[in-house]
Amino acid sequence: MTKGGRKPLIAGNWKMHNNHFEALALTQQLAFRLTAKDYDAVDVVVLPPFTSLRSVQTLVQGDKLRLRYGAQDISPHADGAYTGDVSGRMLAKLGCGFVLAGHSERRHYHGEDDALVGAKVRAIVANEMAPVLCVGEPLSVRRGDEYLEYCLRQLDAGTDGLSAGQASGMIVAYEPIWAIGTGEVAAPEDAQEVCAAIRQRVSGRHGPEVGAAVRILYGGSVKPDNMPGIMAQPDIDGALVGGASLDYEGFVRICRYRETYA
Ligand code: PGA
User: Whole-structure pTM over 0.85, yes or no?
Assistant: First the structure.
């Protein structure tokens, strides 16, 4: 059961949690619980910190797991004197399929602006990985009536310069900042409104086929019990899960959202 042929995608953003031993344990627990039926129904992705990527790669490849993985950040530069940064070529070599760009915590704590986020998205696609471009408004903007424009401006800047082919492989995550880590999930209809506007904008800029193909996730306090309502919305193709992805039982329940309330 897919919406418009789009396979749901559920990504766990582990943020700055878990050393590489703990990451291995969590990956093993997920691998033990997730079945072929789960992977047939949804793409399951984990996004560990850089220091755990090699360990996760070894486990996924060694055990031929269908679990996918990726990184939380990338340098916009190909290589060079950029102390502390990690390039797209390094991440691709580690087998990363996905990389986050524009997460609100990067925008807030590291001052990443739209231009830098766009450059990171281009670095991701240049290395044949799928960007997970995060957009979302703060509470002050949500209280006004400009929140759609706010998110669409972030979307436009983040997708600047992408070809239609590159854009159709990207993933957009709508993450209202006021819902991240707060326990205050957006109402499914409110999330749907923004996700529909995102799809419409992608169609307008890159063509209707790209708009129909692009996967749009919701993120912000996703939990097993609110996931079915979110996934009932026609333009929401999955979730970017923070806190709840650190507990494998809960994360597996999120991946099985269909069964919970079937
Ligand atoms: P949360 O985080 O699920 O803990 O709200 C979501 C995110 O930041 O991606």
Answer: yes
